[in-house]
């Protein structure tokens, strides 16, 4: 069965599509960890200790359905399953690198700004 790549409803704004496909608390982090290596589920769990098994499995399934992640099952006992970025998923690497750079710059800016107090 061929996976159908989904977009945000209406497909009006490309940014909405990006957020729909890779948005969420864990998807960008999962993708970032798969940039340089293929990993097993347990390796991803160790790298992202805050994510629950349920959420990790759900996000990996969604990323696989979006054709961003490839899941390879090896016929061993017990079965060995590995996750990697697909060729299509690799097209996100420059986007993720730009996000990483922007985040680093923003962290530096935020740490140099005085804390503003909220009046109320």
From TrEMBL:
Domain HTH hxlR-type span(s) in chain numbering: 13-111
Repressor keyword on record: no
Top-level lineage group: Bacteria
DNA-binding keyword on record: yes
The entry's keywords: DNA-binding, Transcription, Transcription regulation
InterPro entries, sorted: ArsR-like_HTH (IPR011991), HTH_HxlR (IPR002577), WH-like_DNA-bd_sf (IPR036388), WH_DNA-bd_sf (IPR036390)
One Pfam family hit: HxlR
Official protein name in the record: HxlR family transcriptional regulator
Originating organism: Paenibacillus cisolokensis
């Amino acid at each position: 069965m061929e996976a159908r790549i989904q977009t945000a409803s209406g497909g009006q704004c490309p940014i909405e599509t990006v957020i729909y496909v890779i948005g969420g608390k864990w998807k960008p982090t999962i993708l970032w960890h798969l940039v340089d290596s293929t990993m097993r589920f347990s390796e991803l769990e160790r790298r992202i200790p805050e994510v629950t098994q349920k959420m990790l499995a759900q996000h990996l399934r969604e990323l696989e359905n979006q054709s961003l992640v490839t899941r390879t099952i090896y016929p061993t006992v017990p079965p060995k399953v590995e996750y990697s970025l697909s060729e299509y998923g690799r097209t996100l690497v420059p986007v993720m690198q730009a996000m990483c750079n922007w985040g680093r710059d923003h962290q530096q800016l935020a740490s140099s700004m005085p804390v503003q107090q909220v009046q109320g």
